[in-house]
Write a structure and sequence with these properties.
Keywords: Metal-binding, Zinc, Zinc-finger. This protein is an alpha+beta fold. The chain contains six helices and seven strands. Helix 3 crosses helix 6 and helix 5 packs antiparallel against helix 6.
Length: about 180
Protein backbone atom coordinates (compact mmCIF):
# COMPACT_ATOMS: atom_id res chain seq x y z
CA UNK A 1 0.00 0.00 0.00
CA UNK A 2 1.45 3.37 -1.00
CA UNK A 3 1.37 6.23 1.42
CA UNK A 4 0.21 9.64 0.23
CA UNK A 5 2.23 12.45 1.70
CA UNK A 6 0.72 15.86 2.15
CA UNK A 7 2.97 18.88 1.65
CA UNK A 8 1.99 22.42 2.31
CA UNK A 9 2.82 24.32 -0.88
CA UNK A 10 2.67 27.62 0.98
CA UNK A 11 5.13 26.26 3.51
CA UNK A 12 7.56 25.57 0.67
CA UNK A 13 7.15 29.14 -0.59
CA UNK A 14 7.59 30.55 2.92
CA UNK A 15 10.82 28.58 3.32
CA UNK A 16 12.11 29.86 -0.03
CA UNK A 17 11.37 33.46 1.02
CA UNK A 18 12.63 33.08 4.58
CA UNK A 19 9.21 33.78 6.10
CA UNK A 20 7.98 31.63 8.96
CA UNK A 21 4.58 31.66 10.64
CA UNK A 22 3.00 34.44 8.58
CA UNK A 23 -0.34 33.87 6.83
CA UNK A 24 -0.54 34.75 3.15
CA UNK A 25 -3.14 37.00 1.57
CA UNK A 26 -6.37 35.29 0.49
CA UNK A 27 -5.79 36.09 -3.18
CA UNK A 28 -2.31 34.58 -3.20
CA UNK A 29 -3.60 31.50 -1.36
CA UNK A 30 -6.07 30.89 -4.19
CA UNK A 31 -3.44 31.59 -6.85
CA UNK A 32 -0.96 29.15 -5.28
CA UNK A 33 -3.59 26.44 -4.80
CA UNK A 34 -4.59 26.63 -8.47
CA UNK A 35 -1.05 26.47 -9.84
CA UNK A 36 -0.41 23.28 -11.79
CA UNK A 37 3.06 22.79 -10.37
CA UNK A 38 5.30 24.87 -8.19
CA UNK A 39 5.03 28.64 -8.19
CA UNK A 40 7.92 30.36 -9.99
CA UNK A 41 8.74 33.13 -7.52
CA UNK A 42 11.01 35.02 -9.91
CA UNK A 43 8.32 35.20 -12.61
CA UNK A 44 5.73 36.08 -10.00
CA UNK A 45 7.82 39.01 -8.72
CA UNK A 46 8.40 40.28 -12.26
CA UNK A 47 4.66 40.07 -12.90
CA UNK A 48 4.01 42.16 -9.78
CA UNK A 49 6.76 44.61 -10.73
CA UNK A 50 5.19 45.23 -14.13
CA UNK A 51 1.54 44.80 -13.12
CA UNK A 52 -1.24 47.10 -14.23
CA UNK A 53 -2.19 50.07 -12.06
CA UNK A 54 1.47 50.83 -11.57
CA UNK A 55 0.52 54.10 -9.85
CA UNK A 56 0.59 51.89 -6.75
CA UNK A 57 4.35 52.45 -6.82
CA UNK A 58 3.74 56.18 -6.49
CA UNK A 59 1.21 56.03 -3.66
CA UNK A 60 2.51 53.23 -1.45
CA UNK A 61 5.67 54.29 0.40
CA UNK A 62 7.18 50.80 0.49
CA UNK A 63 6.51 50.17 -3.22
CA UNK A 64 7.83 53.59 -4.21
CA UNK A 65 11.05 53.04 -2.26
CA UNK A 66 11.36 49.46 -3.60
CA UNK A 67 11.03 50.67 -7.21
CA UNK A 68 13.59 53.44 -6.67
CA UNK A 69 16.12 51.07 -5.07
CA UNK A 70 15.63 48.59 -7.92
CA UNK A 71 17.37 51.03 -10.29
CA UNK A 72 20.63 50.62 -8.39
CA UNK A 73 20.43 46.87 -7.65
CA UNK A 74 23.09 44.74 -9.32
CA UNK A 75 21.94 41.71 -11.29
CA UNK A 76 23.47 39.35 -8.71
CA UNK A 77 21.29 40.95 -5.99
CA UNK A 78 18.08 41.22 -8.02
CA UNK A 79 16.57 37.95 -6.76
CA UNK A 80 16.71 39.13 -3.14
CA UNK A 81 15.28 42.51 -4.15
CA UNK A 82 12.36 40.76 -5.84
CA UNK A 83 11.93 38.59 -2.74
CA UNK A 84 11.42 41.76 -0.68
CA UNK A 85 8.50 42.67 -2.94
CA UNK A 86 7.06 39.16 -2.60
CA UNK A 87 7.37 39.14 1.19
CA UNK A 88 5.76 42.57 1.38
CA UNK A 89 2.66 41.72 -0.65
CA UNK A 90 2.15 37.96 -0.31
CA UNK A 91 2.07 37.92 3.48
CA UNK A 92 -0.31 39.58 5.87
CA UNK A 93 1.28 41.25 8.87
CA UNK A 94 4.72 41.36 7.26
CA UNK A 95 6.77 44.33 8.55
CA UNK A 96 5.95 47.34 6.40
CA UNK A 97 2.66 45.93 5.12
CA UNK A 98 0.44 47.53 7.74
CA UNK A 99 -2.74 49.12 6.41
CA UNK A 100 -2.75 52.85 5.99
CA UNK A 101 -3.15 55.60 3.45
CA UNK A 102 -1.96 54.53 0.03
CA UNK A 103 -2.00 50.85 0.99
CA UNK A 104 -2.01 48.66 -2.13
CA UNK A 105 -2.21 44.91 -2.61
CA UNK A 106 -1.63 42.70 -5.62
CA UNK A 107 -4.68 40.92 -7.04
CA UNK A 108 -3.66 37.73 -8.82
CA UNK A 109 -7.27 37.38 -9.97
CA UNK A 110 -7.17 40.72 -11.76
CA UNK A 111 -3.45 40.67 -12.54
CA UNK A 112 -3.11 44.19 -11.18
CA UNK A 113 -2.36 46.31 -8.13
CA UNK A 114 -5.51 47.23 -6.22
CA UNK A 115 -6.19 49.59 -3.35
CA UNK A 116 -6.65 47.43 -0.27
CA UNK A 117 -9.68 49.41 0.89
CA UNK A 118 -11.45 48.93 -2.47
CA UNK A 119 -10.91 45.21 -3.09
CA UNK A 120 -11.31 41.98 -1.13
CA UNK A 121 -10.91 38.32 -2.02
CA UNK A 122 -13.67 35.78 -1.38
CA UNK A 123 -12.25 32.42 -0.27
CA UNK A 124 -15.45 30.60 -1.28
CA UNK A 125 -15.82 32.07 -4.79
CA UNK A 126 -12.02 32.31 -5.16
CA UNK A 127 -12.09 35.74 -6.79
CA UNK A 128 -11.38 39.36 -5.98
CA UNK A 129 -14.38 41.61 -5.63
CA UNK A 130 -15.20 45.27 -5.36
CA UNK A 131 -15.58 46.46 -1.76
CA UNK A 132 -19.33 46.82 -2.34
CA UNK A 133 -19.74 43.10 -3.00
CA UNK A 134 -20.31 40.52 -0.30
CA UNK A 135 -20.72 36.77 -0.12
CA UNK A 136 -24.28 35.61 0.46
CA UNK A 137 -24.28 32.48 2.62
CA UNK A 138 -27.81 31.62 1.47
CA UNK A 139 -27.13 31.27 -2.27
CA UNK A 140 -23.36 30.83 -1.83
CA UNK A 141 -22.38 33.52 -4.37
CA UNK A 142 -20.90 36.98 -4.15
CA UNK A 143 -23.41 39.71 -4.78
CA UNK A 144 -23.34 43.48 -5.31
CA UNK A 145 -24.59 46.00 -2.79
CA UNK A 146 -23.47 47.00 0.67
CA UNK A 147 -26.89 46.97 2.31
CA UNK A 148 -29.16 45.78 -0.47
CA UNK A 149 -30.69 42.31 -0.43
CA UNK A 150 -28.88 39.63 -2.43
CA UNK A 151 -29.54 40.14 -6.13
CA UNK A 152 -29.97 36.37 -6.60
CA UNK A 153 -32.03 35.16 -3.62
CA UNK A 154 -33.30 38.49 -2.16
CA UNK A 155 -31.97 37.66 1.31
CA UNK A 156 -30.49 40.48 3.38
CA UNK A 157 -27.18 40.04 5.16
CA UNK A 158 -25.84 36.65 6.11
CA UNK A 159 -22.64 37.46 4.31
CA UNK A 160 -19.06 37.49 5.43
CA UNK A 161 -15.83 39.22 4.67
CA UNK A 162 -13.23 36.61 3.80
CA UNK A 163 -10.22 37.60 5.89
CA UNK A 164 -9.16 34.14 7.07
CA UNK A 165 -5.56 33.23 7.71
CA UNK A 166 -4.11 30.99 5.03
CA UNK A 167 -1.05 28.86 4.85
CA UNK A 168 -1.21 27.24 8.23
CA UNK A 169 0.31 23.75 8.33
CA UNK A 170 -2.96 22.18 9.47
CA UNK A 171 -4.93 23.53 6.51
CA UNK A 172 -5.63 20.51 4.27
CA UNK A 173 -6.64 22.94 1.50
CA UNK A 174 -2.94 22.99 0.61
CA UNK A 175 -2.32 19.29 0.18
CA UNK A 176 -1.13 18.22 -3.23
Amino acid sequence: MSETRCRNRLGDIANALGVEGKPVTACFATYASQADNSVDLKQLAKKMDHGRATDAFGFDDFLEEWKEKKKAVKEADMEEHYNKLLRYRLYKDYPGSEAGDGYWTYSFCRDSWEEESCTWHCRVCKECNDWREWHCSTCNKCTYGVSLPCERCSKRGGGFDSDDDFGQDSDSFWCY
